[in-house]
Amino acid sequence: MSTREVFTDRLQAGVLLLPTMVVSMVFLYYPTVRAVGLSFYRASLARGDVFVGLENYRRLAGSSEYLRSVLISVLFAACVVVGVMAVALCISFLIHEINVGKGVYLVAVIWPYALPPAVAGLVFLFIAHPNIGIFTSYIEALGVDVNWFSNGPQAFVVVLIAAVWKQVGYNVIFMTAALGNVPESLTETAELDGVSRTQRLLRVYVPIISPTLVFLVIMNTIYGFFRTFPMVDLMTKGGPAGATNILIYDLYRTAFQFYEFGFASAKSVVLFIAVGLLMYGQFRLSDKYAYYGG
Amino acid sequence: MLGSLLTALTAAVERSQSAGRTTSERIRRFETEQLTLHVLAATVVFLIVLPVLIAALVSTKRAGIVTSIGDLVPGGHALSNYRRALIGLEFWRFMLNSFVMSVAVVVGKLIVSLLAALVIVYYRFPYKNAVFLFILFTLLLPVPVRFVPLYRLTTELGMNNTFFAITVPYLASATTVFILRQHFLSIPASLVETAKVDGVGPLRFLWSVLIPMSRAVLVGVSVIMFVYTWNQYLWPLVIINAESLQVAQVGLNLLRGQASTGEVAWSMVMTGSILTLLPPLALLVLFRRQLLETFTIQQK
Q1: Which residue among A40, A81, A274, B222 is the one 20 to 30 A from B279 at the CA level?
Q2: Which of residues 231-270 of A touch B (CB under 8 A)?
Q3: Would B79 be classed as within a structural domain?
Q4: pLDDT the model gives residue B31
Q5: What range(s) does the ABC transmembrane type-1 domain occupy (chain B) (predicted)?
Q6: What Rg, from alpha-carbon coordinates, does chain A have?
């Protein structure tokens, strides 16, 4: 029991907690429970809801289109995580090793944290445009036919680059902070032992900052799954032929283009389980790596 | 690409390391090494800024078509473009809506979360851990997981196309409560004990002790909340149909639609993009110190 707990009036405590509890209950918990309930119905805005049991889930399990969306989401999130973290680690290490002007470089690199995903999507749509993009003619001169409005893999890569660009800054914030906490003595010992720079990063720093890296893997996965929605919506609309149809976009279309709210609710439940597993994974992993945290 | 650059750099440095022995040589080696690092860092910054730099340049041109690097010179239409986007195409309305939404959510969340964190750190009451878990568990319920049933709920409440719909559902925040709790736990317990002895009530304590002692963190979480709210896209997209209430993120797409009927489509879209980027960017640059400090708390 903490000595900070000096106030004991339960009524007061209840009143002060009320706003958070009410908003959480009404707008967070209730809709989630509702999604579970609704997932057993065929529900649309026009007609009433009809109980259909597990039909929505059966439909999901049997839908090759949905399975493809799952695979694309996982692949996309994996590419986002690896791409973002590899680039961010190099940049953070670079800033860490610089002697003067660190603060300026840091701000100049982390600002895309504030960049709206919708703006990232539109700017990339413009600069990578197959017809009028500024780099298109140069890339085509290299022998690549830029046609990502009709070429699935190309569209996937273009959205991925935009997504990585927007997310690197956020990672650098946490990585430079973690690198800054590495004891100076360790760096000196490594240098005296003649450990090369790359070795120092990979063998000394990465294990020490691994709790931060685990945290970032989870944040980046959630970003790759959900926060990239505006980019997909503005750049590809999930296309061409479903090549960028990540789960959140698929869910959006089910609900707001086809108005199948029951089916969409079943998809929401699947997403909820995915987020739950991710968070649980982070919890277990950070427990395991807590030793390094010190 | 960056990785191989770093490897090449390291190899070069190692070669020079085995060569140099005297102090002056060592200093010179250190200087060349730092110079290389600065060149690399400047290149990285350039690459990260480049897309937005292009957008900014395009927003000053009339037609807004740049198909080669030679086209990357500022045009003379900055003023007329921004005026046309803001006034002619009424982008000011979307900006204002975003601004009102973000400020309302930041202020609301701050008050609600301060009260919750106060209770969680300074009150003794039964099932306290359960209450804290109840708040933390909402981390599992981001907007994408529940926007479909939330849409049904909001529709049933008759709150579609209202300011209520894009503010109130955002007011509970596990992240903010958590950051404030961590920060309060770092403030010496003796302060609240003294306050209690002096007969200072909890709200007085919050107002005249906790808040003044938490300025940096409060600024930091406010910036985090503002950026988060300002950048919301999915929820306003589905719940707001009335153009007069729409926010900047979604308004950008409307701008694209309206402008594409004319010949200056892309310069309008880039003008809108720069406008939409400016408020959160300005906050990040102005309050970077507090923001970085707050992030280190969040991760714990």
Answers
A1: A81
A2: 233-234, 248, 251-252, 255-256, 261, 264-265, 268
A3: no
A4: 85
A5: 95-287
A6: 24
Q: Would residue B77 count as lying in a domain?
A: no
Instruction: Please say if the pLDDT value at position B264 is more than 60.
Output: no
Same domain? For B125 and B240 the reply is yes
Q: Which of A4, A6, A230 sits opposite B249 (nearest CB)?
A: A230
Bigger pLDDT: B132 vs A187: B132
The reported pLDDT for the residue numbered A197 is: 86
B265-290 pLDDT, tens digit per residue, is: 888 999 999 999 999 999 999 999 99
Which CATH number fits the domain that encloses residue B221? 1.10.3720.10
Looking at the structure, tell me whether residues B160 and B268 fall in a common domain. Answer: yes
Query: How much is the pLDDT for A294?
Result: 34
CA distance A241 to chain B (A): 22
Phi, psi (rounded to 5 degrees) for B123: -115, 150
Q: Say if the Cβ atoms of B145 and A268 lie within 8 Å.
A: yes
Q: Are B96 and B245 in the same domain?
A: yes
Q: Which of B82, B87, B51 is nearest to A133 (CA)?
A: B51
Q: What is the mean pLDDT of residues B140-162?
A: 91
Pure H helices in B59-90:
78-83
Relative orientation angle of helices B23-58 and B2-19, to the nearest 10 degrees:
160
Residue B168 lies in a domain: yes
Distance CA B82, CA B75 (A): 13
A44 or B281: which leads in pLDDT:
B281
Q: Are residues B155 and B215 in the same domain?
A: yes
Kindly report the pTM of this predicted structure: 0.91
The domain total for chain B is 2
Residue B245: count of CB within 10 angstroms of its CB: 19
Is B49 in the same domain as B120?
A: no
Contact B124, A7 (CB under 8 A): yes
Alpha-carbon span B170 to B141, nearest angstrom:
12
Same domain, B36 and B183: no
Torsion of Cα atoms, B196 then B202 then B203 then B204, to 10°:
0
B223 plus B125 within the same structural domain: yes
Q: What is the pLDDT of residue A193?
A: 85
ipTM here: 0.92
> Is B71 contained in some domain?
no
* Mean pLDDT for the stretch of residues B131-136: 94
The gap from C-alpha B192 to its chain's centroid, in whole angstroms, comes to 33
Average pLDDT of the residues of chain A: 91
Q: Tell the burial category of B142 from Cβ atoms under 10 Å away from its Cβ (0-12, 13-18, 19+).
A: middle
Q: Which residues of chain B lie closer than 8 angstroms to A38, CB-CB?
A: 148-149, 152
Domains of chain A: 63-293 (1.10.3720.10)
The reply to whether residue A268 touches residue B7, judged by beta carbons under 8 angstroms, is: no
Structural domain including B199 reads: 84-298
The per-residue pLDDT for range A103-133, each reduced to its tens digit, is 999 999 999 999 999 999 999 999 998 888 8
Residues B94 and B128 in one domain: yes
DSSP E strands, B218-267: none
CB-CB neighbors (< 8 A) of B296 in chain A: 177
pLDDT at A290 over 60: no
